[in-house]
UniProtKB/TrEMBL annotation:
Entry keyword Iron: yes
Listed SUPFAM superfamilies: Peptide deformylase (SSF56420)
Name used for this protein in its record: Peptide deformylase
Substrates-to-products reaction catalysed: N-terminal N-formyl-L-methionyl-[peptide] + H2O = N-terminal L-methionyl-[peptide] + formate
Stored HAMAP family: Pep_deformylase
Name of the encoding gene: def
UniProt-listed InterPro entries: Peptide_deformylase, Peptide_deformylase_sf
Length: 196
């Protein structure tokens, strides 16, 4: 089932998310719906708060980057099969020199900006079977994970921009929250005027 993606300005995107256990109801359906929603919106990652579920869960599918010529052959091979669910994730280490990459977000359509992030991360998380993992990621996969991880921490990529950049996109962000944006996927806008 395709879920509406909540737009910039919705309080759920700033909420502290909760850890979940094996007892979480209908987790398989939640994951299935999230993947379906992400693919419908042509995304490469989606966090539960973006579909109005304030839990520590996000999904990543980096396979669209397998033909990216900016990546090394080794990285292309790695991303070609990288599709994963992250539950109760914690980034325990970030390292390396920050690098810029042009990021966008399904909750903030039509806004893309360069964001600086560290290239290497170490993360502890559980998979969809609640098996614990501690793993290192680097490059584009680390970046996608960091972006989605920020969502479960109540942080948006626009928070990482300079004060000047934030001022320049302020009007665009206000329009997004009001639903004044052209999109090809289902969204829920916090400040849209109700139709009478």
């Amino acid at each position: 089932m395709i879920l509406p993606i909540v737009a910039y300005g919705d309080p759920v995107l700033r909420k502290e998310t909760e850890e979940i256990t094996k007892e979480y109801p209908n987790l398989d359906a939640v994951l299935e719906n999230m993947f379906e929603t992400m693919y419908e919106a042509r995304g490469i990652g989606l966090a539960a708060p973006q579909v109005n579920i304030p839990i520590r869960l996000f999904i990543v599918d980096a396979t669209p980057f397998e033909d990216d010529e900016d990546l090394s052959e080794e990285e292309q091979k790695f991303v070609s099969t990288f599709k994963r669910a992250f539950i109760n994730a914690r980034i325990v280490e970030e390292s390396g020199d920050e690098w810029a990459f042009n990021e966008g977000c399904l909750s903030i359509p039509d806004v893309r900006e360069d964001v600086f992030r560290k290239p290497n991360i170490v993360m502890e998380y559980e998979d969809e079977n609640f098996k614990k993992h501690k793993e290192s990621f680097s490059g584009i996969v680390a970046r996608i994970i960091q972006h989605e991880y920020d969502h479960i921490e109540g942080v948006l990529f626009t928070d990482k921009l300079s004060p000047l950049k934030k001022r320049l996109i302020k009007g665009k962000l206000e329009n997004i929250s009001k639903g004044k944006v052209s999109i090809e996927y289902r969204m829920k806008f916090p400040n849209a005027k109700k139709k009478r």
